[in-house]
Write a structure and sequence with these properties.
The structure holds two protein chains of two kinds. Helix content of chain A is 73%, strand content 0%. Chain A is built from eleven helices and no strands. By secondary structure, chain B is of the alpha/beta class. Chain B contains eight helices and ten strands. Classes of the chains: A mainly alpha, B alpha/beta.
Chain lengths: 264, 224
């Protein structure tokens, strides 16, 4: 096979040269990231190898399709747990994240498979779910973190609005709009820069695996549109769900930590 | 004083978790009219007490009454339009001064806007000014006009001059006294004894979340 799809373990080991470069830079500039680097590379390697082995079983044509659906549900639950972990100040965020990623998966699948863009197979279901939910999860995290931060930083403005008798829905609206724009902008910018600044993941993977570039482009475009829609859906569901939990039923803003930004 | 006549009555009010109370079983009554100054050192619970009056905070224990009625039973949105508030630092919203007034009264036209600004000593030309470009004193007066746009029965003022210079402070104090003369009682939080002497008809002195002294300005402050 002359495609780049089977680099083998020797190829993988060769690519670690760049990790060594990163390690050397960290050491030389005393960034103290060496341990993190080793852990992240090791953890990523083990995780992906396990996932690869599991996927090989799940997407095998002889494996019942139900296992692919189980995998998808697992992704959605894991995504919700990750969102919850990143913005613990929002009460009930796990369920909001579950609803947001669940709705995104349902809408995305309805379009991707209902309209026949992709055939319903393990080889399409699992990767499409991964890309869709992976991107949606990132935007849900941005929305939840940024919402807590913005409401905390702009508490004076929100309370000035509440003090005028505005209901929480109205008082939080300017902040909610700003936060949703922040969460959606990167995906819109990514879509704008498609092909010019970067070649997106699925397309790069397909070309590396020897697929005709035009076919790869069509798959990528369909995925990007799905992701864009998914990110918008997740952002809206998370933002609206989270903001509701940050106000009491008598229109008071709950106590919030000064900053939620996780730099780790 | 009969309970029904108090502007606000605080009955065994505590705020905050037991290990970090901001107010401790506080009992106090604010008179129905005039300008009441709530004073005390930093951390004594002045602002917390004020925020209980319009339900930006709720007591952990006890009852807060407004003219005899338990505020917990009132519609908070309606209560806040009747019990307006001006904050320590002027908080203007994006847009013009007229846009700001419309946040309080959707139907506020230029004529009504000019009337509101006149009450706080600002010219009608301010209506078109960018609210975020105003000086501290102008912004605080615009905030007072915005608070007045809900036609409140009471005005709460939480150290409204702490970020202002002497001249702007003087203007705001005169506006508060004018509000009282026009029949709107004012509850003013201050940590300055001089300001208390200039303004107060009645004084409620707090210390560490409890009432230290309360009464008429003369009773509490003496002739000092």
């Amino acid at each position: 096979m002359d495609s780049a799809g089977d680099i083998g373990f020797i190829g993988l080991a060769a690519s670690l040269v760049l990790v060594v470069v990163a390690f050397a830079i960290s050491l030389r500039l005393r960034l103290r990231l060496e341990r993190d680097l080793v852990v992240s590379v090791g953890r990523g390697l083990v995780q992906l190898l396990i996932v690869g082995a599991a996927l090989a079983i799940i997407i095998d044509p002889d494996t019942p399709l139900v296992w692919s659906w189980v995998w998808v549900v697992g992704i959605v639950v894991f995504a919700a747990a990750t969102v919850k972990r990143r913005a613990p100040a929002v009460p009930g965020l796990f369920w909001i994240g579950l609803a947001a990623n669940g709705v995104t998966a349902i809408v995305g699948f309805a379009v991707a498979f209902g309209l026949g863009i992709f055939p319903v197979r393990g080889t399409t279901l699992v990767p499409v779910a991964g890309m869709l939910i992976g991107n949606s999860m990132k935007s849900a995290i941005v929305v939840a973190e940024r919402l807590v931060e913005a409401l905390s930083e702009q508490r004076a403005e929100v309370e000035a609005r509440l003090a005028l008798g505005q209901p929480w829905v109205v008082a939080s609206r300017p902040i909610l709009r700003g936060v949703m724009r922040t969460a959606l902008s990167p995906q819109i910018e990514n879509t704008k820069a498609l092909g010019i600044v970067f070649l997106p993941g699925a397309m790069t993977g397909l070309i590396l695996a020897g697929v005709d570039p035009l076919d790869a482009v069509l798959v990528q475009l369909a995925l990007m549109y799905l992701i864009l829609g998914g990110v918008a859906t997740t952002t809206a569901v998370t933002a609206l769900g989270a903001v509701r939990r940050l106000f009491t039923s008598d229109h008071r803003l709950v106590a919030l930590p000064r900053s939620q930004r996780d730099t780790g | 004083m009969p309970e029904g006549e108090s502007l606000f009555a605080f009955e065994s009010v505590s705020v905050g978790p037991p290990e970090a109370r901001r107010l401790h079983e506080l009992d106090a009554r604010l008179p129905p009219g005039g300008l009441t100054v709530v004073a005390g050192p930093s951390g004594s619970g002045k602002s917390t007490l004020l925020r209980l009056c319009n339900r930006l905070e709720v007591p952990s224990e006890g009852t807060v009454r407004h003219r005899g009625e338990d505020v917990a039973l009132r519609d908070p949105l309606k209560l806040r339009r009747e019990v307006a508030m001006v904050f320590q630092r002027p908080v203007t919203f994006a847009g013009t001064v007229l846009d700001n007034l419309r946040e309080a009264d959707r139907d506020c036209d230029e004529l009504r806007g000019a009337e509101l600004l006149e009450r706080v000593g600002l010219a009608a030309t301010f209506l078109a000014r960018d609210a975020n470009e105003l000086s501290g004193g102008e912004a605080q007066r615009a905030c007072l006009a915005r608070a007045l746009a809900t036609n409140p029965h009471v005005m709460l003022m939480d150290e409204p001059t702490s970020a202002l210079d002497a001249q702007a402070t003087d203007v705001l104090e005169r506006l508060a006294k004018q509000l009282v003369r026009d029949g709107t009682p004012v509850v003013w939080v201050s940590h300055s004894e001089e300001q208390m002497r200039r303004l107060a008809d009645c004084v409620l002195l707090l210390a560490a979340g409890r009432v230290d002294r309360e009464g008429s300005a003369q009773e509490v402050l003496g002739d000092g």
